Amino acid sequence: MEQRDNKHRERERIDAHARRTHRERRYLFRRPRPLQYFRGGVLIRDTTERTSQRLELFFDLTFVGLISVLAKECVRHPDGAGLAKYILTFLPAFMVWTYVREIMDSFWNDDLQQRMLILVVMAALVVYGNNATSVEQDRSEGPGRSTAVAAYLVATGTVGGVFLWYSFFVKAWRIQVRAHWVFAAVFMGLWIASIFVNVHQAAAIASVAICLEYCAWLYVYSPAFKNLMHLQYSSALSIEHELDRFNDFFTLVMGEFLFSSISGQPAGLGVHEGVGRAVLSLVIAFSFQLLYIGGSGCKKILHPIRKSAASAIAWLNLHIPLVMSLTLVGDASAELVSENVDVESGVRWIFCGGYTVAMLSLWALAYIDTSRDEPGEVWFPKDARIGGRLVSAIIVVFLPLTSQETLSSNKLLGIIAALSFGTFLWESVSSLDGPNGPAYQPRDEGSSPGMSTPPNAVAADPGKRAEMWAATLQWRGYPCFAEPGLYVPDRTHQRQLEPTTSNDDTEKQLVE
To answer: How many Cα atoms are found within 13 Å in the side-chain-facing hemisphere of 510?
Structure first.
């Protein structure tokens, strides 16, 4: 046993040396290597700093464009059947995006093989998007459904083939990858069967296939499966890359939200009510973007991905209804922004229902953050800060019950924009320093955070010194809303070099 362990460790050392050696060299094809994995209970990861790659963003743009096409089709047919079609065509595309995201997160080396993989998957998604809007057609009526299913199988099969190929070189993922794609191959039979039945049976089969495929993916990469198979080497996530990737992806989704309100000039020319509606739509998108970026408003958190497998799965899954609903809201807002007097009732329901689902998803994402702040470090506790999201969601879901004569598109967008921006403002204010925050803690008058000694120029002038130490605040029942000295102008001359201290550390800290 000890001899085998030594052999494994020697193999890992050789692979680590090869990784460092070949990293800066250029090749068309590279050996697959995991960027992170678990060895026992220890996380082994590549030391290279990673961010979202340009090719990842390009692929995300393709996916966002695809789901926008699906959302437009739903808005054109704003009924239960149209919504069901949107959900059943969105989820397979999201599965493909998830598989590609996993490859980029765990094995990305940017060689020609991976670039061609992205090209093939993007081509399959383009074909899928062009045909998914006609999946309700039987084979006798047109090739829409069969072509969409074939494109989906090509995309998943291509990604699955690459995963299986990598499993011959990466033992940390081997059993999990092979188990996952054995399940996926079985479920492909359900997709093929959906081509040869009527639309209702096809919808039922597709629902089962999506559910089984997604559950299989979650299970084989879960701790339960790792324990069942007694895996000493197993898969791991790059948390920083995942967060960076989802942040960029959400920004692209919000960009598509705004594009829907601008494309085709739905507000018309000139400055009039239509332009006002477009601006209100912008306020809604702006608020969603900042609420997502702000998270729970805590200064220190334990992220759900780091907390447990259950919370990580919840965090990942909540992005599905969030993205799905915001894409619908963006395309429905284009109808509300347009100069048409009467908007179908179904469009209003899609807009308000999608808004509610999106806001509830944002609330849940913030709720599962584990705050590490001390009591009183932030003005209001987390539940009170994010409660505005719940209030906004509950109010908006009932707005379509009011007739258009009473609640026009102007008023509808105005109310929702006010709720969205008000929620953002409330979270911005309630997340300020509380009575136990650093700004209200007493400290020595001769010291300041990040400064060992006062600068000579300031120390020589008592007035300036008093102004500098005024940053120590007194709690008055509410936080300070502006930085002390915010509106004190700089009266020094740009052409005159001010004297500096001989303490280089102090000078550096002042510049910072």
So the answer is: 16
Q: Which residues of 88-116 are buried (b: 16+ CB within 10 A; e: fewer)?
A: bbbbbbbbbbebbbbbbbbbbbebeebee
* H helix and E strand count, the chain: 18, 5
Alpha-carbon distance of 9 to 81, in angstroms, equals: 57
Of the candidates 80, 62, 82, 63, the residue with the CA atom closest to the CA atom of residue 72: 82
297 contacts 378 by C-beta, under 8 angstroms: yes
Please return the burial class of 179, using the count of CB atoms within 10 Å of its CB with bins 0-12, 13-18 and 19+.
middle
45 forms beta bridges with 36
- DSSP output for 150-172: HHHHHHHHHHHHHHHHHHTT-TT
Any alpha helices (H) in 308-436, and if so which ranges? 309-337, 345-367, 382-397, 409-430
Task: Identify the band that residue 270 occupies on the pLDDT scale cut at 50, 70 and 90.
Answer: low
Tell me how far apart the alpha carbons of residues 213 and 181 are, in angstroms, rounded to a whole number: 10
Amino acid at 120: V
CB 164 within 8 A of CB 135: no
Element at 234 (helix H, strand E)? strand 233-235
The span from the CA of 241 to the CA of 82, in Å, is 35
Cα(382)–Cα(373) distance, rounded to whole angstroms?
A: 10
For the chain, how big is the Rg over CA atoms in Å?
Answer: 27
For position 59, what pLDDT does the model report? 92
Q: For residues 336 and 282, give the distance between their C-alpha atoms in angstroms, rounded to a whole number.
A: 13
Between the alpha carbon of residue 334 and those of residues 255, 283, 286, the distances in Å are: 13, 14, 16
Give residue 266's identity as a one-letter amino acid code: P
Q: Are 288 and 254 in contact (CB under 8 A)?
A: yes
Say how far apart CA 333 and CA 266 lie, in whole Å: 10
Structure tokens at 25: 């060299």
Q: Coil, helix or strand for 424?
A: helix
**Cα distance between residue 508 and residue 217, in whole Å:** 50
Structure tokens at 171: 């033992």
Task: Give the C-alpha separation, 270 to 272, whole Å.
Answer: 6
C-alpha 370/C-alpha 52 separation (Å) is 25
User: Which residue, 326, 348, 327, 333, is CA-closest to 274?
Assistant: 333
Task: Say if CB 399 and CB 415 are below 8 A apart.
Answer: yes
| % of the chain with per-residue pLDDT over 70 | 84
pTM of this prediction? 0.86
Contact (Cβ atoms closer than 8 angstroms) between residue 451 and residue 509: yes
Where does the pLDDT of residue 269 fall: very low under 50, low under 70, confident under 90, or very high at 90 and above?
low
Of 84, 361, 320, the C-alpha closest to 214 is: 320
